[in-house]
């Protein structure tokens, strides 16, 4: 068994998108569902991220995921995460 501990910060409100631009030369993982990825909503987030960052997206999120579905979101191979940086 292995454990993963993540220090999570949740930012919301008017200034949240501006905050994304403060990250430089980082890898940013965007987690969303297929609908958000396909309807263009994620583009707003991507545009707020500094161009020096590498952006990866996991677009198979579902509400109340099972343990197996959470495991599917962990990068086991490069094909699991789709790079969408322009």
Order of helices and strands: HEHHEHE
- Proportion of residues in extended strands: 5-15%
Structural class, by secondary structure, is: alpha+beta
How many strands, what sense, and barrel or not for the largest sheet? 3 strands, mixed
Number of helices: 4
> Helix amount, in percent?
25-40%
Inertia-based shape: globular
User: How are the strands of the largest sheet arranged?
Assistant: 1-2-3
Low-confidence stretches: 77-86
Distance between the termini: 37 Å
Average pLDDT for all residues? 81
Radius of gyration: 14 Å
**Count of beta strands:** 3
Describe the protein's architecture and organization.
This protein is of the alpha+beta class. It is about 30% helix and about 15% strand. It contains four helices and three strands. A three-stranded mixed β-sheet has the order 1-2-3, with no helix packed on it. It is globular and about 35 Å long. The N and C termini lie far apart (about 35 Å). The model is unreliable at about 75-85 (pLDDT under 50).
């Amino acid at each position: 068994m292995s454990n993963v501990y993540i220090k999570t910060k949740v930012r919301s409100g008017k200034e949240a998108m501006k905050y994304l631009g403060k990250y430089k030369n980082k890898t940013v993982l965007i987690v969303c569902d297929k609908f958000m990825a396909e309807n263009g909503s994620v583009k707003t987030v991507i545009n707020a991220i500094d161009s020096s960052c590498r952006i990866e997206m996991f677009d198979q999120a579902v509400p109340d995921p099972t343990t197996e579905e959470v495991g599917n979101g962990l990068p086991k191979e490069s094909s699991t995460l789709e790079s969408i940086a322009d």
